[in-house]
TrEMBL record:
Family matches, as Pfam families: ABC_tran
Organism (species): Roseitalea porphyridii
Domain ABC transporter, first and last residues per copy: 45-290
Protein name as it appears in the record: Phosphonate C-P lyase system protein PhnK
Gene: phnK
Tagged with keyword Lyase: yes
GO terms under biological process: organic phosphonate catabolic process
Entries under NCBIfam families matching the protein: CP_lyasePhnK
Molecular function GO labels: ATP binding; ATP hydrolysis activity; lyase activity
Length: 296
């Protein structure tokens, strides 16, 4: 466990008072301005009373929250608290037992995810969402070149021009600090940190609006983790991405997220702005979690 839980997050954007009209942009019609305001006042994703049971065992229970555009939400808790189950239920990888998840599409329409067809959900995954797995091998094709891994995602969204695809892949490899001369290498020849950076490039090349991350720095050396976190934080901020990040590492939550939810035994027991929860935890369990990190 790392000990830099108290590192400040410099990119924090104001999350309270979100949804307030920002006024009309010059050149914007009144209808466009109204649409932009409406979009700003609607959450990107709303989970309502999501529960998942594995037989008699609780995966997660009665979880409700809203995620706003550009907001990074961390889901924290100890092993077995239900973080991954919740993430999978929200990202349509696992059908919840009860509850609903509503997502606002880029075209402005809201859809209940589990009422969409499988094909529509797959399309959403390819175009508007990304998923960064803890183990890069789960999110990469290990026997396809680095450039191919990135280009393939673009092709899945309709790109066909080889030169443009190669140029975009080169650009994204550079953005995730992978040297251009590694573009034809396969990820199995990469270090763990490089693989994870490649997985990030593969996910971001299509310009998603929402990215799910499951322990994105888990299993990496502390120094590699710090560099990856820096990179992730920069990309998420630059691209204005919304993200849901599952982590047991409060330092990761501190560095990346605006808001956090603390889970225990499948339930959300505390939620709030990240700095507030970490600096002034209200629940005894959160206090224990925070103090155990600070003493580590
Ligand atoms: N496929 C499954 N079948 C049965 N029980 C499961 C399954 N997946 C998870 N569980 C149970 O659901 C509960 C929540 O597990 P989950 O993996 O979501 O927790 P977690 O907080 O992500 O843990 P970790 O940090 O160790 O990954 C645990 O009791 C776990 O044993």
């Amino acid at each position: 466990m790392t000990t830099h839980a108290s590192t400040a997050a410099p990119h924090r954007q104001p999350v309270e008072g979100r949804g307030k009209a920002a006024g009309r942009v010059p050149g914007q019609t009144h209808d466009e301005a109204s649409a932009a305001i409406a979009a700003d006042e609607t959450p990107l994703l709303t989970a309502h009373a999501v529960s998942k049971f594995y037989g008699p065992r609780i995966g997660c229970r009665d979880v409700s929250f809203e995620l706003w555009p550009g907001e990074v939400l961390a889901v924290v808790g100890e092993s077995g608290s239900g973080k991954t189950t919740l993430l999978n239920c929200i990202s349509t990888r696992l059908m919840p037992t009860t509850g609903s998840v509503t997502y606002r599409l880029a075209d402005g329409g809201s859809r209940e995810l589990y009422r969409m067809s499988e094909a529509e959900r797959r399309m959403l995954m390819r175009t508007e969402w990304g998923f960064v797995h803890q183990n890069p091998a789960d999110g990469l094709r290990m026997t396809v070149s680095a450039g191919g891994n990135v280009g393939e995602r673009l092709m899945a969204t309709g790109a066909r021009h080889y030169g443009n695809i190669r140029a975009a892949a080169t650009d994204w490899l550079e953005r995730v600090e992978i040297a251009e001369d590694r573009i034809d290498d396969q990820p199995r020849a990469f270090s763990g940190g490089m693989r994870q950076r490649l997985q990030i490039a593969r996910n971001l090349v299509t310009g998603p609006r929402l990215i799910f991350m499951d322990e994105p720095t888990g299993g990496l050396d502390v120094s590699v983790q710090a560099r990856l976190l820096d990179l992730l934080r920069g990309l998420v901020t630059d691209l204005g991405l919304a993200a849901i990040v599952v982590t047991h590492d409060l330092a990761v939550a501190r560095l990346l997220s605006h808001r956090m939810m603390v889970m225990k035994d499948g339930h959300v027991i505390e939620t709030g702005l990240t700095d507030r929860v970490l600096d002034d935890p209200r629940e005894a369990y959160t206090q224990l979690l925070v103090s155990s990190i600070l003493q580590a």
